[in-house]
Every structure is written in C-alpha cells, then in structure tokens.
Amino acid sequence: MENEQLNTIKTWLGSGSVNLFGLPFAGKDTVGIKLAEIFGGRFLSSGMILREHERENKEIRVLDKGFLVPSNDFREIVLPYLASQELVGLPLFLSSFGRWDGEQFDVLAALDDSQHVLKAVILLNVSENEIKNRWETAKNLNDRGEEERVDDRKLEVLETRISEFTKKTMPVVEFYKDQGVLIPVNAHQSREAVVMETLKKLYAFAMGHPL
Fold this sequence. Notes:
The chain is α/β, with parallel strands linked by helices. It is built from eight helices and five strands, in the order αβαβααβαβααβα. The chain has helices spanning 3-13, 28-39, 46-57, 71-78, 103-113, 128-141, 155-178, 191-208, and strands at 17-22, 42-45, 92-95, 118-125, 182-186. α1 (3-13) crosses α8 (191-208) and α2 packs across α8 (191-208). The protein starts with a helix and ends with a helix.
C-alpha cells in the first residue's frame, strides 16, 4: 500500500481505536499488532489482560476452560486500561474488547471518555474447520506457549471457545454491523494477505467516512 494511503488512514484514525473480532486462531492478535506497528499505536488484548490478572491473583482460571469472564470482571479489570496515561494521543488496536452482548456499550463509553473513540470494527472471517486445522498445527508446533495459553491444549476447550463466540460475541458483532462500522475481512489467507486486505478496506472505509 502506498504511503499516501497509509497517511490517509492515520489522519482519519487519529487517537481513535479499531476493535478486532473473530474466532480463536483467526489472527486477531497478529493483525492488531501489525496495525499498531504501522500506525504508531498500541495493541491491547482483553484476553491477555485477563489471563495476567488470573495468574497474579491466583483466581479460578475460567479462560483456561474456554469460557468468557463475567461482564463485571471485564468492566473492572480490562476497561481501566483504556485510560492509561501512556496511551494518551495514540491510536489503539483492540483484540475483542467487549465479548458479551451489552459490554459494547461500556466499551464505547470508555473509549469516548479516554478520547480513543471507536472508528471501525474488523471481523476476521474464517471457518471452524480452518480454525481447528490451525489449532492442530499450533499445538504440534507449540508456538503459543505452554504457560501463556493453557486453553489451547485441549480440543474440547477450543470447541467451548467457538461456542462462546457464536452464542455470546456474534450479537456484539451484529450490533456493530447495524451501526455501520463493521469491516469484514477474509482470514482464509496468508498473514501478509490478511493484513493487506485489512489496510485496503480501512482505507476505503476512511475515504467513505471523512473527518
């Protein structure tokens, strides 16, 4: 992508935010980290924040079983990160902030308050069969870390995570679609191709939603 187009996206985004959703292994963290690198922003993963909290506080690790944490925990543990002083003035790329239907309103309010207004939502589309193939490959390669991702070890946990996304998170995605901010991206591609499609669609979206 040309620098002029990237600059257009950066100007349009400002200190705003982009929220990424998708099934486990869809590539949310990969894409989010790359976008943060390109646009000089910060990447935040709600899952990483919650796992760290569970480890430090020796709480029951519901994430390791594939279930979403209760909304109260999400609000109390994750949302305060958005107001961090070190994030002031920077664009944010968020991995699945607000996975339960209803949490999106808390996310939108917290983003507005911290001046990281939501600009777009990326949905990385990938089939369940492909997700399970990626899980099998990652498990064999052990490339997600034994300590970091205990929830990746068992197929039944992955299936629970898929079920949680379908039942609890898809209504959130539909909400953003109704709001006109959802950008679907084909995640059945190489990582480089997914990032490129995301950039192209962000540029088109920015051109259609001028400042």
